[in-house]
Design goal:
Layout (H helix, E strand, L loop, with lengths): L2 H170 L1
Length: 173
């Protein structure tokens, strides 16, 4: 074999080793890349799942926020309606209170007028009672005077009869 043949065989051997090494490196790189791809695919799937979960959670939170906003708006409307109702009720109660206060003033004035009238009537009653008492005393005194006068009259009539009897007795004798 010639030098050229040995050289060719050496080159072929070297190239075979080189290609085999390159093949092993490519195979190892392929396995490494496949493992990395699988890892990255797992990470991407996990990230996608996390993203989808976060999107779903975001939608859920957004829906919940909208529901809460609607509930707050409804609550505000309800509270505003209740406030208006309470204001109306308060105004009605104030008017009622004012009317009752006016009625109370009128009734107080009426009570004072009735009390004053009662006081005048009580004074009149006292005056009439004292007048009645005075009249009763005068009547009693007049009755006593009539009784005494009647008694004196009866005594005088008795004396007159007695004197007339005596006079007729004396005239007959």
């Amino acid at each position: 074999m010639s030098f050229f043949g040995k050289l060719l065989i050496s080159i072929v051997l070297f190239m075979s080793i080189l290609l085999m090494t390159l093949g092993l490196v490519v195979n190892r790189t392929h396995h490494n890349l496949k493992d990395e791809r699988d890892d990255l695919k797992t990470q991407v799937d996990a990230a996608r799942n996390t993203y989808e979960e976060l999107v779903a959670e975001h939608k859920q939170l957004d829906n919940e926020l909208q529901r809460e906003q609607v509930a707050v708006v409804n609550q505000l409307r309800k509270l505003e309606h209740e406030r208006v109702t309470l204001i109306g009720r308060n105004e009605a109660l104030e008017q009622n209170l004012q009317a009752l206060t006016d009625v109370r003033r009128e009734k107080t004035a009426e009570v004072l007028a009735v009390q004053e009238r009662n006081n005048r009537l009580a004074d009149q009653v006292d005056d009439l009672r004292s007048e009645i008492k005075t009249n009763q005393q005068a009547r009693d005194q007049a009755f006593i005077a009539v009784v005494q006068t009647t008694e004196e009259l009866h005594q005088l009539q008795g004396q007159l009869e007695h004197t007339l009897e005596r006079n007729s007795d004396l005239n007959e004798d």
